[in-house]
Design a protein that fits this description.
Largest sheet: 10 strands, mixed
CATH architecture of one domain: 3-Layer(bba) Sandwich
CATH superfamily of one domain: FAD/NAD(P)-binding domain
Distance between the termini: 12 Å
Strand content: 25-35%
Order of helices and strands: EHEEHEHEHEHEEHEEEEEHEEEH
Shape: globular
Helix content: 25-40%
CATH topology of one domain: FAD/NAD(P)-binding domain
Bound molecules: flavin-adenine dinucleotide
Radius of gyration: 20 Å
Structural class: alpha/beta
Number of helices: 8
CATH class of one domain: Alpha Beta
Length: 346
């Protein structure tokens, strides 16, 4: 059997790698270079996604919590455990009870993954770890573990694994119509945000729709002593402040778009992230501290009016010999690729 996979983001790369591990002759087509789009614009977390518990995505969170350990085992040189602080303030944001319940469920779902359990820190401990954090009303923080990766390098490592098994990578090759690949026995449409566009080149109504939700980050020219998950002031949204190559990564936003192309971060998004950061952390950061900005477009399965509540699960659709992949997350991409390979071979 000869299979063509279109799209060398993390989902296409993991699918091609899974096929190559099963002895299938596979070609991976990429219109530019591997990991050039959404997969290199992530928050660089291999995480269960604590906030997805609020929308009842227990199954996904459980899978992702265990998937973190798989990545750590496979490529320990490109990812590592990361302790995250979740500070709590008196009469602000979610109740301490809600947060404690979420943390405990996270711990239970992570059981067997080899990650330590969360622990509670008092304000003095929190400020020792993150001295710039606003102390007024601080009642403590939960410290829990997730993992951090170099998304670009780890994604390219997956592509290398695929090539080492004899897989063929074709870059700078845009597949404009799936009919171009008729010579293959099976085809996988793994083009992430562009999956609907390529789906349109085969007949029939698509079974799923994507929501294109841009997320932006800023990098501040200052070290970040502790990774944190914080609530955006005046909203229930969560944002991250993370150590990143000796600097501070702040993200992310959720801006719904009408199409898959990435226009880059808007001025409003940069301001939003600076304001959120400055609400909690001193000294305040300005535009002069921003050394890098980047954004990516999430290919989310259309499932909720509020993009924060949209599922991060994935779905498949089969049209003749093509398998279309919709949605997913970086952390669970290897599971998604294994799932896709199994379906292709059925
Ligand atoms: C701001 C942000 C933060 C995130 N943070 C995290 C996180 O911390 N942890 C996590 O687990 N997930 C995170 N995610 C989600 C995760 O990054 C995405 O789910 C994942 O990267 C999507 O990968 P993909 O392969 O589907 O898409 P992409 O990475 O976009 O790959 C699609 C590829 O297909 C190629 N392509 C498109 N059309 C064609 C064509 N016609 N012919 C050939 N090639 C084509 C594109 O060039 C591209 O390389 C985040 C997402 C965003 C936007």
């Amino acid at each position: 059997m000869r299979v063509a996979v279109v799209g060398a983001g993390i989902v296409g790369a993991c699918t091609a790698w899974a096929l190559a591990r099963r002895g299938v002759a596979c070609t991976l087509y990429e219109r530019r270079q591997p990991m050039g789009e959404t997969s290199r614009a992530s928050s660089k977390l291999l995480h269960g996604g604590l906030r997805y518990l609020e929308t009842g995505q227990f199954r996904l969170v459980g899978k992702a919590l265990h998937a973190r350990s798989d990545w750590l085992e496979l490529a320990p040189h490109l990812c590592h455990r990361l302790e995250m602080l979740l500070p709590m303030y008196r009469e602000k944001g979610r109740s301490q009870l809600t947060i404690a319940a979420g943390i405990r469920i996270y711990d239970v779902l992570a059981m067997g993954s080899g990650f330590p359990r969360a622990r509670m820190l008092n304000p003095a401990d929190v400020l020792a770890l993150q001295p710039g954090l606003s102390a007024g009303g601080l009642v403590g923080a939960w410290a829990f573990f997730d993992a951090q990766m170099d998304d670009y390098a780890l994604g390219n490592w997956v592509v290398d694994q695929f090539c080492d098994l004899g897989g063929e990578l074709v870059t700078d090759h845009e597949v404009r119509d799936l009919a171009e690949l008729d010579g293959y026995d099976r085809i996988v449409n793994a083009t992430g945000p562009w999956a609907m566009q390529l789906r349109e080149t085969v007949p029939g109504k698509p079974s799923h729709h994507l929501d294109w939700v841009r997320g932006s980050h800023i990098v501040l020219d200052r070290p970040c002593p502790a990774a944190m998950l914080l609530e955006v002031p005046g909203s229930s949204r969560i944002f991250f402040v993370l150590p990143h190559q000796g600097r501070t990564l702040v993200g992310t936003t959720e801006v719904r778009q009408t199409g898959p192309n990435n226009p880059g971060p808007s001025e409003n998004e940069i301001r939003y992230l600076l304001d959120a950061h400055n609400f909690y952390l001193a000294p305040a950061a300005t535009h002069y501290d921003v050394v890098e900005v980047f954004s990516g477009v999430r290919p989310l399965l259309r499932s909720a009016d509020n993009p924060s509540e949209a599922t991060r699960e994935w779905a498949f659709e089969r049209t003749a010999k093509v398998l279309h992949i919709y949605g997913g997350k970086w952390t669970t991409a290897k599971l998604q690729g294994d799932d896709a390979a199994q379906r292709i071979l059925q």
